User: Fold this.
Amino acid sequence: MRRMNFDLDVLRTFATGIELGSFAKAAERLGRSTSAVSAQLKKLEEQAGTPVLRKSGRGMALTEAGETMLAYARRLLELNDEAAAALHGTELEGWVRLGLQEDFGESLLTEVLGRFARAHPRVKVEVRIARNLELLERVSSGRLDLALAWDAGVASPHAERLGEVPLRWIAGDNAASAWPQDSEPLPLVMLEAPCMMRSAATAALDRAHIPWRIAFTSASLAGTWAAVAAGLGVSLRTPLGLPASVRALEPHDTSLPALGSLGLCLHRAEAEPAAPVERLATILTQQWRGLPLAA
Assistant:
């Protein structure tokens, strides 16, 4: 069978259009005419040998093949961009100060820093793991260049909304022992206040008229997961970064109130950051989009 070599330029147009939700916007961002973009999409479907888009109302939606193609397109483009950056990586020098929540320690940090270090060995990265409020304060005061933080309704001048992650009740394998028995309050395992997820959990339970009590308070997620795994109670978080000892309950698995989703934002200290900062922000964004929960 003849090998198919996909055109990276075409894949970039395809991925950009899906990311922006509009191929007209993709044409504008990429500096192409809409007819040129249409021709590229036609070429992609010819190369793929199957439709990757279908009509959905007034717009377009991905077919099953299109979803597969998008995942590979993002991987190919990331590898291409990493290779290009590596060839010119010695041009970048300096420091980048990055702030993250504990949730992203395993799901993002390892891959992001690995890619960045390979491409830009002369740039030093300083990482701070902290709570949401501290991250925002440090970005505002210029003590961090970048911060990946939950959308807590606090605006920042140079924030980019990356997407949303579902909120889920978190339980151990012996979850049944954590549910309230008869009229007993639901035991909660939470981070120390102030904590936006702690507030969201108690507010949701109050609205549902479910009695609760704080059974365990921790200063870190590691302590929270240990207590949940031990069956001391349930917690509220996103499915990101969960250890194997606990699990996120789907809405149909529990009678506890559903809580929707939580926005995620990338905050920059400056509107036009230095090149190393902007490059790390790009890799961070790309890696986030590749996560199963990215939306």
